[in-house]
Amino acid sequence: MSEHVDVSKIKDPTIAAARKEVEFQRAMNPCPIDFSEFQSSNPRSQGEQKEYEGKDASNFNRRQKYSDSEEPQFTTPFGSEPGFLPVEKDRYRLVWSKHCPWAHRIAIAIDLLGLDKVISKGVVDPLRPAGVIADWFFTLDKDEKDPVLGIHSLGEAYRKGDPNYDARSTVPAIVDVTTGAVVNNDYHALTTELALGFKDFISPDAPDIYPEELRADIDALNVIIYADFNLAVNLAALVTNQKDYEYYYNRIFARLDWLEERLSKQRYLMGDTITDPDIRIFPTLARFDLVFYQKYLVNKKRLVDYPNLWNYAKDLYSNPAFGGTTDFDSMRKRFYYVDHTPFEDLPRLVPKGPDDSIWLEPNDRAEKNLVNKIDSKFICWMSCI
Q: Strands 92-96 and 181-184: what pairing?
């Protein structure tokens, strides 16, 4: 995603106007589940927490070390140019957590483009060891180690990429399996970088998610969605006062209204085919009613209350690259059970709803393609009269 877009090159006037209203913040905030000052978002926000020893010792009570917003530290792109990461089959492994929306988008892109045959995936446990923050662990795997990388924590790969690395070890992370080092964790750009850098490996039936003639519009729309939706839902939970909470609350729902209107006219955000903005918005939509509406108090409307957005989300979910990478159970675990702290030390409930099966219900989005084709034929006919 390029945040530096020449607005004059944007073809869609509604995107151009909206882009002028938002600011791009490249540095990412820490997760509200660990850093919000309010118990509604962070059940451990009040007071000291019990410390646990062992292989993965607790560090939650010293979390302020990791409280600053951080930019991705590993941003070298893929390609054949000098200094770029070499593009090779089986050279890289995506490490991700199924609860995380920023990582989810990369998993979707890999599967949608057919790059799952080229780039492998490793999954960390959405539940960290008791009282641990700022790292992710392969505790779902045999011997609690990633079977390809042979590491117990993602932080080990970060420190192989930079021995002095001392910040949050975040997902997503692309690891070079030949060195075991993280080489790219730029969630802002990875979807398009994979599409461009690995173009020779992309499945012939995959959509062009970043067509050259639409790149200015796509880059602008990505910034709009990022600022007013993807990021804003987190910032609404990280505020320290009512005024700031209402600011993000209002921006989120103004943007959802804008998106609802846009999707009344076309099947996907850029027209009749899936492009990069669809990949970037879906993970936040998939978590909206389950997490952000309930836990972050972004609760004016649910996703299911928007006819176009809801049917659009179900349409995307019906695509295996989207639905096959969506794990509501992992979301419930991370956002509500938090980590492996024993229940008696941190009592919490995990919501049973919303009903996940509604994502399998029929959607009406194919009709939008038909309407667009009829409208296009009508405009052509009128211009010939």
A: unpaired
Amino acid in the structure at residue 231: L
Q: How far apart are CA 8 and CA 13, in angstroms?
A: 10
CA–chain centroid gap for 235, Å, is 15
CA 236 to chain centre: 17
The rounded distance, in Å, linking the Cα atoms of 365 and 309 is: 10
DSSP code, position 305: G
Neighbouring C-alpha atoms within 13 Å toward the C-beta of 123: 15
Question: What's the one-letter identity of residue 172?
Answer: P
User: What type of residue is 114?
Assistant: G
CA distance 366 to 211: 22
The DSSP bridge pattern shows strands 92-96 and 173-176 to be: antiparallel
**Residue that is written with structure tokens 């410390």 in the block:** 51
Q: Is the pLDDT of residue 155 over 90?
A: yes
CA angle 190, 73, 83 (to 5 degrees): 70
Rounded CA gap, 92 and 154, in Å?
14
Q: How far apart are CA 17 and CA 185, in angstroms?
A: 31
Neighbours of 279 (CB within 10 A): 27
Q: Look at residue 5 in the predicted model and tell me its pLDDT.
A: 72
366: its two tokens: 């194919």
SS3 52: coil
pTM across the whole model: 0.95
- Helix crossing, 190-197 with 101-112: angle to 10°? 20
The DSSP letter of residue 296 is S
Assess whether pLDDT exceeds 50 at residue 294. yes
Q: Is the pLDDT of residue 385 over 80?
A: no
Q: Which residue has the tokens 């804003």?
A: 232
**Active site amino acids:** 100
Q: What is the pLDDT of residues 303-357, one digit of tens each?
A: 999 999 999 999 999 999 999 999 999 999 999 999 999 999 999 999 999 999 9
Instruction: Locate 120 and state its tokens.
Output: 């492998």
In 10 A of CB 200, how many CB atoms?
Answer: 8
H helices of the chain, where?
13-19, 32-35, 101-112, 154-161, 190-197, 215-225, 232-238, 242-262, 276-287, 293-295, 307-317, 320-323, 328-332, 366-384
**Whose CA is closest to 119, among 98, 148, 151, 157?**
148
